[in-house]
Amino acid sequence: MRRSRRRVLVGCCTALALLAIWTITTVVTSLVSPGRFPSPPDVWAAARQIVVGYADATLLQHALHSLRLVLMGFAVAVAIGMPLGTLMGAYRRLDAFITPVFSIVRPIPPLAWIPLAILWLGLGDAAKIMVIFFAAFVPSVINSHTGVRTIEPHLIEASRTLGVRGFAHIREVLVPGAMPMIFTGLRLSLQAAWTTLVAAELVGALAGLGRVLNVAQQDIYPAMILVAMASVAVLGWGTTRLLEIVESRAMPWIAARS
Questions:
Q1: Is residue 88 within 8 Å of 141, Cβ to Cβ?
Q2: Which of 18, 97, 166, 216 has the smallest CB count inside 10 Å?
Q3: Residue 143 carries which DSSP code?
């Protein structure tokens, strides 16, 4: 408890120090021109503007649209990637069958799927969800597969000796044993989803924080760009925090130890 309070205090002091340096360099001394990097008053004015409306929507509408895309792409990626990685780690024949295909897909950057997604699905949200899916899919598969493979062999042998087979073996032995690595994959997948979202929304988006970034860049509006970047950071932090709460509920022994 004391350690967490100290961590919060240090974080607040760091944020205040950065804010002071930002204000001094942009407002007090004008070492950095507003055209290159906005001042705190400029960012505050941009934030007030987008709350009312910018790029054909309000900040809440842009944020909800981006959040919906991320959650849909992330959910589909996890729903497919986590079971697939678990089964690949459990059954070597399935692993040998799927790994060659996965090894071809794995090195492809998620942004490389954008032209194909637009060709298949157009400029709508479906194309963006597809790109986010590929970004979040790979970490989910890899970490689930690794988690199963790193389970100590004597635990698997003990379960087989006790007659645990089939789906019960996966549910009661493999998934609990691989859960730390599975949640690591979920965090990486969520991070990849948010990173890819902005790039996906830069092309043909009617709403979303990526569209705000695109329009602000065309308007040469650095303060609005910073507001959109901060909004992505807040949403990313919030969803990651929710995932950490789920992780602590799923693995209470980890939370108690930390």
A1: yes
A2: 166
A3: H
Residue 6 CB: number of other CB atoms within 10 A?
Answer: 10
φ, ψ for residue 150, nearest 5 deg? -95, 0
- Helices 125-149, 92-105: inter-axial angle, 10-degree rounding: 140
Residues in the chain: 258
Higher pLDDT, residue 74 or 148: 74
For residue range 150-201, list pLDDT tens digits in order: 887 777 777 777 666 777 777 777 888 888 899 999 999 999 999 898 888 8
Q: What is the DSSP secondary-structure string of 31-67? A: -S-TTTS--HHHHHHHHHHHHH-BTTB-HHHHHHHHH
pLDDT band at 77; cut points 50, 70, 90 = very high
Residue-wise pLDDT tens digits, 38-59:
989 999 999 999 999 998 899 9
Q: What is the pTM of this model?
A: 0.87
Within 106-221, residue ranges assigned H as helices are 114-121, 125-149, 153-161, 166-169, 175-201, 209-218
Specify whether the backbone of 122 is left (phi greater than 0), alpha (psi in -120 to 50) or beta.
left
Class of domain 44-257: mainly alpha
In a 13 Å sphere around the CA of 27, the CA atoms on its Cβ side amount to 11
CA distance to 90, 163, 170, per residue, from 159 (Å)? 13, 6, 10
> Measured between alpha carbons, how far is 183 from 251 in angstroms, rounded to an integer?
10
- Nearest partner of 200 among 190, 209, 191, judged by Cα: 209
- Inform me whether the pLDDT recorded for 254 exceeds 80: no
- Tokens at 162, concatenated: 């006790």
Query: Which residues lie closer than 8 Å to 85 by C-beta, 6 or more apart?
Result: 140, 141, 142, 143, 144, 145, 146, 147, 148, 185
